[in-house]
Structures
1.
Amino acid sequence: MDRRKRSRALLTLLGCLAALALCAAAALTLLLRTPDAQDVTIPGARGGIPATVQLPAKLARGGEVPVVVLCHGFTGNRGGDGHFAPLADDLAALGIATVRLDFAGCGDSAEPYTAYTLANMAADVDSAITFMQSEYGVTGPVGLVGHSMGGRLASLYPQLGQYPAAALVLWSPANGTGLQGLEFLNIEDFSVVEALAAEAEANGQAGTKWGVAISAEFVRGMRESDPNAALRACGLPVLLTCSGQDTVLSAATLAEAQAAVQSLPNGQVETEAFAQGDHNYGNADPAVAAQLDETLRAVTAAFLAQHLKG
C-alpha cells in the first residue's frame, strides 16, 4: 500500500473512531439526562388522581431511589405556588424521584371540593407511593414535603398513612391544634371559623370566603387532629420553614409548630432566610421572590438528601 492509500485509510479509521466516540457521548448524554416531568393519572380509591412525576437520571438501581410526595395547600394545586416543579428538578439531580398531585377539588381534580379531607389526602398520598413503586420500581425511603394544609397532612401522615415515612419537610404548616388549624378561613375573627365549622357539621357542608365549600368530614378531621403531637410521637427528621410576613397563619400557631420540631432529635427550623416572604414564600419584588424560592428549594433539597440518601 503506498503512502497516500495508507494516509486515506488512517484518516478513514480516525473518522470512524471519532464518529463512534460522538455516538457514545450522545448515548451517554441521553442516558444521564434527567427525564422530562410526566403528567400522569394515578389510580386512587375514589378515582383517578391528576399528578406529575419527575424521575432522576439514573434508575438502574431503582429500589435504592428515594421518592418524595409534594403536597400543596388549601385550594392550591400541584404547582405548589411555583415552587414544586423546580424543586422536583433539584431533587432529580440528587437522585430523588418526586410525585406531586392535585388533591380532591383542586387543580385538575374532577372531584368536588367537599371531598377534600385529611383522610382522603392521606389515601391519595398512599396511592401515589404505590404508583411510584409499581410503575417505576422506586422503592427507596419515602419523604413528604407539605405546604400549609399540605404541611398539616405531612405532619399527620405517619399516623394516617400506610407507608413509613423517613423524613418530613413542612413549609408554614397549618398545624394549629384541632379547629385552630382552620384559622386561615378568617384570621381576623376566629368566632367566624367556629361558626363555619358548626354549620358544616350541622348541614354537611359550609361555604367559605375562599370560594369553596368545606365538608363536615373535613371539619371533623381537623377537630380531632393534633399535628404537633403527631410530630413529637413519630420522632422523624423534620425540617420546618416559616416566613416572616405570614398573614394566613397566626404567630402562635407557627410558634407551636417550631416548639414541636425543635423538640425532635433531628428537627431543624429555618426562619431568618424567609423574613421577607409571605405565606407562599413570595414577595412583590421579583428579585426577592426569586431568592426566597431558591433558598426554600436549597434547604429542602439538602435536608431530604441528607435523610433519604445519607
2.
Amino acid sequence: MFATATLLTFITASTLLALAPGPDNLFVLTQSALHGRKAGLMITLGLCSGLVGHTLAVALGIAVLFQASALAFTALKLVGASYLLYLAWQAFRASGTRLALKSTPPLKLSRLYRRGIVMNLTNPKVSIFFLAFLPQFADPQRGNIAIQLTLLGGLFILTTVVIFGAIALLAGQLGHWFGQSPRCQQWLNRSAAMVFVALAVKLACAER
C-alpha cells in the first residue's frame, strides 16, 4: 500500500519525533526514575494506547473538532494541565514521606498504565499534530485513506514504544542508583514535581 521510500521517510521522521524532548518522553523519564523500569514501561504502554485513540480520531475525522472548536480544545487541555498539577503535588509530597516509609506499597502497574493513557488523551495537541502529520504520507491512489492513516498511526506507535521503552529502561536504572541515597531520592521527587508543573503550564498555554 505504501511506497518503500515513503515508509522509510515516515519511520525516520517518527523516530526523530520520539527522540525530541517533549511532554511524553519527559513523562516516561521522570516516572521511570521515580518508580522504576517496570513503571516506565507501563507508562509507555499507556501513552501509546492513548496514541491509538488519537490515530482513530484522525482516521475518523474527530480530531478536526479540536482544530475547529476553541471550547473543546481549551476544555481538554485544562483537564490535562490539572492532572499534571495533581501528579506534581503527589511527587512533591513524596519527597518528605517516601524515604521514611519503607513499607509504602509501590504504585500498581494498572494505575501507571491508566496514568499514561490519561496523560496522552488529555493533550489535544497530539490529535492536531497527527491531523497535520499522518496525511502527508497517505496517497488517495493507494487505497482507502482511513486505512492508510490507521496503519501509519500504528507504525508511529510501534516506533514510539521502542524509543520510549529504551528511555524507561535507562531512566529506571539511573533512578535505582540515585534511590540508594535519601538525599538523591528527595532531589528526584522534587525535580519530577517541577517537570510536571512545567508541562502543565506549557499545556495550559498551548494554542491550536
